[in-house]
Amino acid sequence: MKSTENLAAEANAGAQQHAAPHRTRIKLCGLSKPEDVSLTIDLGADAIGLVFYPPSPRSVSVAQAVELVHDVPPFISVVGLFVNATPDWIREVASNVGLTLLQFHGDETAEQCESLASVAGLPWLRALRVAADTQPADLVKSALNYSAASALLFDTHVEGYGGGGKVFDWSLIPAELARRAVLSGGLNAQNVSDAIHRVRPYAVDVSSGIEVPGAKGVKDHARMAAFVRAVRAADAE
User: Fold this and answer.
1) What is residue 92's predicted lDDT score, i.e. its pLDDT?
2) Closest CA to 104 of 148, 45, 60
């Protein structure tokens, strides 16, 4: 009779022999219509992103969000994006909408992120804006500062808080941070394959790259599908 150790070794060997390629997780963000969420689910994306920042053209109300997440099945993350939010706003959204993760995209310190997350009782990720003069050492320092975050989202530094459709220099992301990295900033179906090959991020996050050109917040279903296909093709190469 084989020992437990032998069975485990055989199982591990078989898993390595038939190991699947790395699967980059996908978050489609800034969704505001039920049909956008339904397509996101049908495409097999891992997360939907809802914006709770009223100045944004992609922002949704609590009532809208409740409708949007009504039919989201298990194991698909619902990420709430906040910018310099108050504890009361976090509490209101979290108590009414079935969020599974908070995304802090403003000027929140590590201490503020942890405090706000505790209000909701949810894990969180922190967006780090990468500017032209940002150095890899700066990102490593920020990663250490936000060590309690579930992940780090790397976005392009633009006026305002994200959604500018601008790409930053991906080579600035140190390899040791890639496994925690959610890559964002100007991604689309045409460049996401190159981004995945160069960075090997844990996940990719897209918003403006899946929208009708010139219409912020209006999702283009063909672009949504093309983006997901491009990510899966990159993983398979």
Assistant:
1) 97
2) 148
Task: Check residue 187 and report its DSSP letter.
Answer: -
Instruction: Count CB-CB contacts under 10 A for residue 198.
Output: 13
Picking from 111, 170, 173, the residue whose alpha carbon sits closest to that of residue 140 is: 173
Q: Which two tokens stand for residue 62?
A: 């609590």
Superfamily of domain 22-236: Aldolase class I (3.20.20.70)
pTM assigned to the model: 0.88
Burial group, residue 91, by CB count within 10 angstroms (0-12, 13-18, 19+): middle
Q: In whole angstroms, what is the distance from residue 14 CA to residue 22 CA?
A: 17
> Tell me, what's the pLDDT at 165?
72
Q: Which residue in the list 29, 36, 113, 205 is annotated as catalytic? A: 29
Is 64 buried (19+), middle (13-18) or exposed (0-12) by CB count in 10 A? middle
Please indicate whether residue 155 is annotated as part of the active site: yes
- The pLDDT of residue 16 is 44
Task: Record the tokens describing residue 37, joined without a space.
Answer: 């969420």
Q: How far apart are CA 147 and CA 232, in angstroms?
A: 29
Nearest Cα residue to 174 out of 149, 195, 143: 143
pLDDT for position 166: 83
Burial of 17 (0-12, 13-18, 19+ CB in 10 A): exposed
Q: What is the pLDDT of residue 211?
A: 96
Q: Which residue stretches of the chain have pLDDT < 70?
A: 1-21, 159-164
Catalytic residue among 36, 107, 138, 155: 155
